[in-house]
Amino acid sequence: MLNRLKADIDGILELVQKCPPALQETALKVILEHWFMGNAAVPAKTQVGSSPGTVATAVPQDLPGPVKNFMTANGLTFEEMSKVYSPIGAGAQLLISGIPGAGKAMKQANLALLLAVKQALETGAFSCTLKQLREMATHYDCYDAANFSTNLKSHKNDFKPRAKGADLELSGPGLKRAGQLIEGAGEHD
Amino acid sequence: MIDVAQELEDLLGELVAVQKDVNKLTTASVSGTPIREWIKDIHKRWLPILGVLEKADRLDSGELQLVSEHWNRLLKLTDGKNPKSQYRTVLKSIISLTEISVLHPFIKYSGLQTIGSTLRKLTASISDPVLLKYLDESIRCAEANCVRGSVVLAWCAVAFRIQEKLVSIGLPQLEGEFDKMRLDQGMLFKNFNRVYKLSTKPDVQEIPDAHLILLCRFLTYLDDTEYKHLKGALDLRNGCGHPTGYQPDPVKLQAYFADITQLVLRNPKFA
Questions:
Q1: Do B20 and B92 share a domain, yes or no?
Q2: Other beta carbons within 10 Å of A24
Q3: pTM
Q4: How confident is the model at residue A175 (pLDDT cuts 50, 70, 90)?
């Protein structure tokens, strides 16, 4: 997608320069938002019989706004999202067979990020309960009970401050890291 | 009400810390009072957790008994000056048993308590009464910790939907499509060489599900990726429907439901 942006950016800037100087920043923002939305969306259904490896993805009409913003901000396409989650919307499940990261600690932190996005696909809130995280970490064999809390503390930048036992909620850096993980997770799975 | 998982994690964290301190000792025995008192304190915190765990009917009481016995051995060691090696052995057993035989099953069973609502969300938009009959029974199985039964019953809904769809194109036509698929030399189909004679609907029910879903791919009701995922779901169903040691967990079941609902039960091509 970045290559496409590189190809289009000159045209976008040309358009922006036609606006009054005071409005150029806003114009650039609006045009870029539309560009990302347009380029993030793939056709409603991949053609039947498409080449192996492509994923048939129905683009949901009712995707929560925060998820749309998250995808736009991180330049994520529906195709990239659908390599990690299915369906893209309510009832989303993690598709990947392994959690990216070296060692249980990193995998656990990355799993929390991916689960928060999964939750957002359903409700729009990038949060994850500790119960969910424990269940999924057990499933993905990255649950280290004795260091569960310590692992979360060592990745505290990814989450908003919280009381002990409270749900995890992604911070700005956490959202960014989640975006990077989704971009990379589908490629390596 | 205590958060058992959190309490057990904290307890395990402390036991690991004790284990490290014991390992660091340069003496052959644990003679210092602080470590022994520390262990006694941790044990006091273990007792209320044990009380809750004993009430959880799905946990293996034998495993809990075993952990308790190891705790008793550890407490006995703290009564006097005892060898470090004995502490190490008992601590290792308690930590390992508590995590693998108590905490992991506890987490798994707490997942089963909410699985019904999760699965019902996935099947909420399905209205066919026959499918709902199978799915409802499947979900009730999951809630009762019969995950393998749940997988098999949910597949009944999938098989029913696929058979209905294929029968709807007409039996002679269906027979013809099987013949065309037999002659197709494409990667997916070249190993298919069965000849089917279809005169009644039950003849279709006799065909292995693997061949039916392959035909669905041949008829382009599924693309390659969808076929691959549905084949994976069928493999899971076969793993659960035959005597094997495989025990899928609630997370696997959720992913299975997500796949079968998306690929077949809610797929307009199978309507």
A1: yes
A2: 15
A3: 0.75
A4: very high
